[in-house]
């Protein structure tokens, strides 16, 4: 008779033990996560630590860890901002090169995390195929960009013309080659793991390569569309940290315990004000407002045009509610400043969710940062997690509210048609303009 009672007590103790173990797991970790860890063989990677320069360690040795981290982040932030100004001064070509380098480094950091988590099986061709797919995707996206923005140069060179004509077919053939290589690399008993890594690589390509491609497209619309959004994200990151450091009391989200509502709200107002001021300063310079175009005569990028209405001062009436507060009835400002409010609002309210997403990713794999490239800041991906989300928004915003038909691109496409097709379009356009009264009788004749 005592045996069932003892057995029930043992079962109850075992149940309590299992419950306590489940409570000790990280937020969001489930039984399937534990099974995956045993299947993938090996514990998660050890959290990375920042390699703070020895000179800073000695200079800040008397400070507490909180203030030491504040000074390290501040000094490195100023260094990065200085570097940002330098590459802007060097021009569009250097900016595009830096975007490409950042993309490759971000891809490397994410793929390295996957390799460290699943390296115990030493999957065949994993790293080789990952970099091969990166090459394929970049060839496709940047080939499209070259065809769009360097049309005259492409048509002038026979090899480039052939590559441009069959670009998508070549891109698809390259991807199929990698796909077949992946299938041939499948190893018995590790199929599921290899398909996990296949998905890991493709999601990384979607997040990193696609967004960096959109950043370059934004740059071609004018450097102001590149600099203002990136600067707003940087400003929001800095001001949210500052407000949170000095005034933060209320936690914002569990994924990032150090984020506070005070920092979030303070960063929002500071970013909107910063966006208005920066837009006002930059709108007065053609080198920032004009589209970036390639000059075939000099084989270099040129930034020179007649500023559009977006970058010409206009007078706006102040709402009656605010007139008594500010004491003005009208205000002169650039229309782009109104658009900057939308950009800065997105950068401060929605942009941080890119950082929260990255925080969730790092928590899932029990790592502190993507890498330890920048002391006090982590890896390159830690600094660009919000920038990629911002790039997509800017590209969608330009396509929806700013960009119209591009006459130069239409002419480029027109010149590639056969003579009889060009003549048909010419006659159709002339008849249309005559019907609207744009062409006079002499011009029509």
In short:
The chain is mainly alpha-helical. The protein has a domain at 222-402. It is built from 20 helices and 6 strands.
Account of the 3D structure:
By secondary structure, the chain is mainly alpha-helical. The chain has a domain at 222-402. The chain is built from 20 helices and six strands. It has a two-stranded antiparallel sheet with strand order 1-2. A hairpin with a 2-residue loop joins strand 1 and strand 2. Helix 6 packs antiparallel against helix 9 (167-184) and helix 11 crosses helix 17. The longest helix has 30 residues, at 191-220. The chain is flat and about 80 Å long. Residues 1-50 have low confidence and may be disordered.
Helix content: over 70%
Main β-sheet, spatial strand arrangement: 1-2
Average pLDDT taken over every residue: 81
Radius of gyration: 28 Å
Please provide the count of β strands.
6
Gap from first CA to last CA: 115 Å
Strand proportion: under 5%
- Oligomer, anyone? single chain
**Overall 3D shape:** flat
Count of alpha and pi helical runs? 20
Going by helix content, strand content and strand pairing, the class is mainly alpha
Largest sheet: 2 strands, antiparallel
Q: Tell me the series of helices and strands, N- to C-terminal.
A: HHHHHHHHHHHEEHHEEEHEHHHHHH
EC number: 2.7.7.41
Protein name: Phosphatidate cytidylyltransferase
Subcellular location: Membrane
Keywords: Lipid biosynthesis, Lipid metabolism, Membrane, Nucleotidyltransferase, Phospholipid biosynthesis, Phospholipid metabolism, Transferase, Transmembrane, Transmembrane helix
